[in-house]
Structures are given as structure tokens and as C-alpha cells.
Prior knowledge:
This protein is an alpha+beta fold and 352 residues long. Helices cover 30% and strands 28% of the residues.
Amino acid sequence: xxxTEINAYAKINLILNVSERRADGFHEVETLMQGxxxxxxxxxxxxxxxxxxxxEAGAYGSxxxxxxxxxxxxxxxxxxxxxxxxxxxxxxxxxxxxxERIDIEIEKRxxxxxxxxxxxxxxAAVITGLARLWGLLPEAGDGSSxxxxxxxxxxxxTPDSANGxxxxxxxxxxxxxxxxxxxxxxxxxxxxxxxxxDVPFSFMLQNGLASAIGRGRGTELEAAESRPxxxxxxxxxCPVSTKEVYAAFDSLPKPERACCEGYxxxxxLSGSLSFCGNGLRPAALSICPEIAEAEDAMRxxxxxxLMIQLSGSGPTIYAVxxxxxxxxAERLCRLKNTxxxxxxxNAARSIV
Length: 352
């Protein structure tokens, strides 16, 4: 049995603009997503058992043996888990004529239902892992700087059903010399988009893209410059349903829009942060008022932070610092044991 391990990175939304609900039920969004170093560890094991009969069982029957261990008794390890769904979709898309066994082990570090795309990252990691084991993508260090170039110029706008790959040559090459076929990235991104709006960015984050603007329902990606920054993420103990937040958004006055172009055009990190904002904050607050208390606690604990903002639909609040200026481990440990003991406090940095 062959195996690979993937860092399933979390993301934050530096900008999240939300418009009206579309005909397909999704909301039109414009979001600037940034990968951060906080990550789940996902191990994918694979063994080819033979050729599938393709009889009555079909591609979803006994032709695929699948197990998932989430390492957390409170998490479902069944067919409703995105990592499980990713394996089923990958089998159907690429190996429907193969009898195989796939085992997935997840070491959770990203808080659940926190606005950090932890579940999406795990699903994307299964896509990445199987693609590597099947020779669809090169084996590579997850998100390492020498490999990030492989996809950094590979994101651009495509139809809403898929994560984008820019125009140009038929593939992209990393500084370490491996070649990534652009058409294969597009195909894998279409699988990712079937799982959820955040999954394509999570997949590209694992394969070279540190930051991107997401449009449509968030799956149309345009590469963006990633700025170095230190971060502290606090997740209060009030899980928030993304579906409920978007439903609340529809009934509330629409907030002022933030500006992706302003963020990217600013000369400094502090200047860029003045263009940030999260249009879902009022809706998230209406469901989880504790978010406002968490914001106040973060401002009091980190008066030196350049910005404190909600990520995604919440409830995670993050503080931004200049690179190398985040709180040291001792200070963070004191805060974990006192002011923020009721939730989860994590130090992180942006991926560049």
C-alpha cells in the first residue's frame, strides 16, 4: 500500500464581499483568500486491488473500499465528510474501472466550523494525495516556497464550475523543475468545485497558490500577491453554520464593500489592511453575539495588532501583525490559559 501526507492549510478571508443570492442558490461573492500555516495533517493510503467488474455494483460499489479516521469522536467519518466525498469523486472521475482501497487519516488542528475552511482543506488534501499517488500530479513538498511557483501563475478566471487556470502555455513549471499539466489542474479543480466553494482554493493552496481572489461562488480564482504577516487566530466556543449566516445576510442591510484592488495596490501591509472588510460580519453577529465579545478581547489583548477581523462566516477572529512582530510563545501561552481559555487560540503566519 502506497501513501502520502499532505498539509491541509487553513485560510482566512482578508476581504469578503457578498452580493445577492443567485438562481442556483449560491451567493455571488468577491473574496481575497490567504493561506495560513495552521494546518491539518492528512495521510492518504492507496492500494490497487485489481480491475473493476463494472457489474451491478458500478463504480460506487464494491470496486472501492474506503475508510476514514478523523481522529475526533465528535466528527463524522462517514459519507457526509468532505474527505470521504473527495475519495468517492476521485475514484469515479479517474479510477472507475479499478478495484482499489483508500484509507484516510486526519489529524485535526484547524478548529471545526470556524470560518477557516478546515473541512474544505481536508477534502482538497484527499484530491491532492490521490492525484500524487496516481501520477496525476508530481510528488512535492506541500506548499514549500520552491514549489509554489508551479501554480502561482496558474490561477485565472474560468467558468463558475471550476477553479481557474490562466491562459498561456499548456503547463507550468516550478523552480525545482517539475512540470504541472494545466489541463490536469483544471480537471482536478472541477472535482474540487463539486465538493464546495472553498475547496478549489484549498486545493490550489496545497499545490502552489498562496493567495487568490475568488469570484462567482468563490471558485473562479485569480492569483493575488501574498503578503508576509504574522497572525493570531481565536475561535470562540460558538460554532456557526455557514448556511444560517448566509440566510441571515439576506434579511439584513447590505454593508459597505471592501476593495480587493486597493489591498493589492497598497505599498505596505498596514496600508493594504485599510481596504479589508467582511460583509458577513453583521449576519454572523446576529447568530453568534459572542463574536463581538471575542473581538473586544482580541483588541484588548493585542493593542499592537494592525487589524482584527472576522474570517469567513465566523466565528474565528484573527489579528494581523507585521512579519516577525507577532506575540511570542510565552505571551500566547499566558493568554491561552487565561483570557482565551474558553476557545482555541493559535499563532500562524501567512503562506507566501
